[in-house]
Design goal:
The protein has 218 residues and is of the alpha/beta class. 33% of the residues lie in helices and 22% in strands. The protein has an 8-stranded mixed β-sheet, with helices on both faces. α1 crosses α6 and α3 packs across α4.
């Protein structure tokens, strides 16, 4: 793993590059969720699982987390950070390049593609926060219609921020691939007694990503 700094505005944020553990297939520039930074155990688990299918990851902090704050940055600052992280990745890692993230990080990546015209071969959204808890709507996905790159949604079947019917509606409308993570919630906690999928949830995510990459990067 290699640490580096990304220039964002007048400051810098931390970044971690984890190379692919097997033959390299691409690099995913991967943003964290609203409540945790790039070193959170879920971020590490996702990156490790993806490395096992040949996908390198460049994780990075948004400025508010770098500064130790809890309130997220504005959308303008967040999308500028995503764009800066992608530029940084192009100088640090091998392509082809993808964007994505967990929850907030994935949503900001999608906005960055639209607002900054970012050129990537695909986007991977882990626990995309389609709506606030208990307030189902698809408004947060309106901008996805402007994205031409292939998209993969990895969403827990118990995610309270991604109602099943609405996620399926968004995926169909945008021609995205949607894969449900068996019994997982927004933070990837699963119901062990009723879970039918073998392996842990992060292996499941990597398996879905592997299948999607075979079709997307063929």
């Amino acid at each position: 793993m290699r640490e580096s700094r990304i220039a964002v505005g007048d400051g810098t944020v931390s970044a971690l590059l984890l190379p692919a553990a097997v033959k390299h297939r691409g690099t995913l520039v991967f943003g964290h969720g609203a409540g945790a930074d790039m070193r959170h155990r879920n971020m590490e688990a996702i990156a490790g699982a993806l490395a096992g299918i040949g996908l390198a990851t460049l994780r990075y902090n948004f400025p508010y987390k770098e500064a130790g704050k809890s309130r997220v940055d504005s959308q303008a600052v967040s999308t500028a950070t995503v764009a800066a992280a992608l530029t940084h990745a192009r100088g640090e890692a091998q392509g082809p390049f993808l964007l994505g993230g967990h929850s907030f990080g994935g949503r900001m990546a999608s906005h960055a593609v639209v607002e900054h015209g970012l050129d990537v071969v695909g986007l991977i959204f882990c626990s995309f926060p389609l709506h606030a808890m208990g307030r189902p709507t698809t408004k947060r996905a309106d901008h996805l219609d402007a994205i031409n790159a292939p998209m993969l949604f990895l969403s827990g079947s118990r995610d309270g921020m991604a109602t099943t019917a609405l996620m399926e509606e968004v995926a169909a409308r945008t021609s995205a691939t949607l894969r449900w993570l068996d019994t997982a919630d927004h933070g990837y906690k699963v119901l062990k007694r009723t879970r039918q999928r073998e392996g842990d949830v992060f292996e499941e995510m990597a398996s879905h990503a592997d299948e999607w990459l075979r079709a997307t990067l063929a």
